[in-house]
Amino acid sequence: MHRRTLLTAALAAPTVAHAQTWPTRQVRLVTPDAPGGGGDTLARVLSHYWGLAQPLVVDNRPGASGRLALEAVWRSPPDGTALLLGNAGSNGINAAIHRDLPYDLERDFTPISLIATGPNVLAINSRALPARDVPALIALLRAAPGRYNYGSAGAGSSAHFSMELFKLRAGVQVEHIPYRGAPAMAQAAVAGDPPLLIANLSNVMPFLQRGELTPLAVTSLERSPDLPGVPTLHESGLEGFETIAWNGLFGPPGLPPEIVTRAHAEVARIAALPDARDRVRALGVEIVAGGPDVLAARVRADIARWRDLVARTGIRAE
Residue 299 pLDDT > 70, yes or no? Predict the structure, then answer.
């Protein structure tokens, strides 16, 4: 028994020692977002202000509804050399829409910090889809079921599921066109085909500011301070409608608590920097730096919400 205790302690010692000195090597911040998207910009803000001994390097792995990025981190050793900047799609919706995931999103990623939250926005290309407000849009779509398309950042993204919830609540039929990432989705909408989307505000804010897309409503229950003149869907006749975009920092399974604590402390330090807060606020989201329990609760709630939507609509992975 004494020998086994000594052996266990010897095996555990390198992990604990490594956690206490982490990071001793470059840290990859793997993100499912394509370069130029809101999640990518947030990742680069974190990388820029990262103050620990080794650099934080952004590793973009878009595609497959975020699964490429998640599998890369899931298969990584629990030494803190690879972390994941996940989001509402990759770490919530995927559990509802994919039955063949090799990992469990609630158990197999170590929550570190909820980093940012913000509303989605329902926006149109008003040249291709003339509607002055949400009731007018719903009336137009009901009069021409299946005629119009909407874009998303990919099947299983929060943009995809937010629009499917809108379709269910509004009683309209609009066809889904998935794109490989938010930048491609937004550029297609600016070109007018498809003329409709619900997107993370961070992904389309520049297009809204230039007047290339027209915001009709935000998906939070309260109006966004970044678009104070734009009503909520809740105000626009879809009572109680709410979807929130978020980004969170995760580690692979078995990440030592010491690394979790230090990584979260660094995120909290960055979140308190006025310059970092301003840069993130410019994306239309708030930096929050919630702890591991806050992030875990967000994941659980999102998975339950989206599984319910799948059960009610029969949405499938595309």
Answer: yes
200: domain CATH number is: 3.40.190.10
pLDDT of residue 6: 39
DSSP string spanning 144-205? Answer: STTT-EEEESSTTSHHHHHHHHHHHHHT---EEEE-SSHHHHHHHHHHTSS-EEEEEHHHHH
Is the distance from CB of 91 to CB of 70 less than 8 angstroms? yes
Residue 104's domain comprises 2-116+246-303+309-313
Cα–Cα distance between 118 and 127 in angstroms, integer?
Answer: 27
Q: Considering the entire predicted model, what is its pTM?
A: 0.83
Per the listing, tokens 């947030």 go with: 42
Whether residue 241 is contained in a domain is answered as: no
Q: What is the pLDDT of residues 28-38, one digit of tens each?
A: 999 998 898 88
Lookup result for tokens 């009709």: 216
Report DSSP state, residue 231. Answer: P
Are residue 78 and residue 131 in the same domain, yes or no? no
